[in-house]
Amino acid sequence: MTEKDRTLVISPNWIGDAVMAQPLLRLLKQAHPERAIDVLAPPQVVPVWRRIQEADDILVTPFRHRALQLGERWRYARILKERGYSDAYVLPNTLKYALIPWLARIPRRVGYKGEMRYGMVNVMHHDDKPRRSMVPFYAALAREPEVPLPGKLVRPYLVVGGEETEQVGKRFGVDLSRPLVAFAPGAEFGIAKRWPPAYYGALAAKVVDAVPGVQVVLLGSPNDRETCDQVVRHVAGAAGAAVRNLAGQTSLDDAIALLARASAVVSNDSGLLHIASALNRPVVALYGSTDPDYAPPLSEVARTVSLRLACSPCRKRECPLGHHDCMNKMSVERVWSELVPILVPVKGSAARA
Questions:
Q1: What structural domains and CATH numbers belong to the chain?
Q2: Given CA atoms 202, 203, 208, 209 in this order, what sign does their dihedral have?
Q3: Three-state SS for 231?
């Protein structure tokens, strides 16, 4: 491989956004199949990039969150310069990430206008369609500014090996020969995105009652542990024995492996939702303070629940009106009605087993 034969992609910081950037890499590979793509990513999203086939090498950012660290960026840019890049795609809209390819003297630096990045980004895109969904937002960077994307984009796609899933299942005592339904009751952005734990508990009881031998696993980060504990406490009767809280026990790698085998996933608008969608799992996605048109699930079987109240989407971390109606008024029966059609074939296979 000769000098300037590589592409650098600077990853978003959020898990869901990293998932939704995968079609961009697919387009870049189609345009230059001979060119390796390196991804510069913060540690929390590296497990996602490891499951993206178009990413040839993943470089982990050494920078602290929200810190400029100009000297550290200068030193790291010198390392990148030695790797030889012909172009760079800066997905975060901040000035500090645009500094890196500029300092590394990468000739072609592509991104959106963002924070005063003229000169640092020299192929400048402008978002003339506010709040368009994230997949075409990122994918548009593969074309010259103002050149439309061709046709319908393929959904994001992640790959997980069967052996990895088997190992993770054994480690956490999840019997992969039995039906597996995953809930993701948390959301790192804030509580406004979260459906009440009591509702998740009631929904879990319905799933256990409807599907023989089912296992319901609750997934999330350590920050979601207490929320998931509340879910378990709200599962009535004997059904609680079939519900396991794995939030904070599994790494993101582990959670991805388990989601790959889930028969159904119920999730708030979170990174785990978009991972499940990119693994093509059947999902029921719950939206309150965020816009389902902005970051929808794109799996083949995807059901979206949003009350679309006059006050939503507010895109706030906490309800500015104090009532959280967008989630509190989303009934268990409403979500159950979307989940039942997904569970019908699961129930049938469980009964045959």
A1: 6-142 (3.40.50.2000), 167-352 (3.40.50.2000)
A2: positive
A3: helix
Backbone φ and ψ for 283, nearest 5 degrees, come out as -130, 150
pTM above 0.90, yes or no: yes
pLDDT mean over 209-235: 96
Per-residue CA distances from 316 to 189, 282, 313 (Å)? 9, 28, 8
Strand partners, 37: 7
Does the CA dihedral 129-131-133-136 come out positive or negative? positive
Find where tokens 């178009």 sit.
54
Distance of CA 140 to the CA centre of its chain: 19
Per-residue confidence (pLDDT) for residue 347, from 0 to 100: 64
Among residues 219, 216, 232, 192, which one has the least CA distance to residue 328?
A: 192
Give the Cβ contact number of residue 250 at 10 Å. 19
DSSP 164-189: HHHHHHHHTT--TTS-EEEEE---TT
Nearest to 117 by CA among 96, 132, 141, 103: 96
- The pLDDT value given to residue 1: 44
The answer to whether the beta carbons of residues 43 and 62 sit under 8 Å apart is no
Q: Provide the CA 84 distance to its chain's centre, in angstroms.
A: 30
Tell me how far apart the alpha carbons of residues 295 and 309 are, in angstroms, rounded to a whole number: 18
Q: Six-digit token pair at 342?
A: 């997904």
For residue 28, count other CB atoms closer than 10 A to its CB: 20
What is the chain's alpha carbon radius of gyration, rounded to the nearest angstrom? Answer: 21
What is the rounded distance in angstroms from the CA atom of residue 208 to the CA atom of residue 308? 29
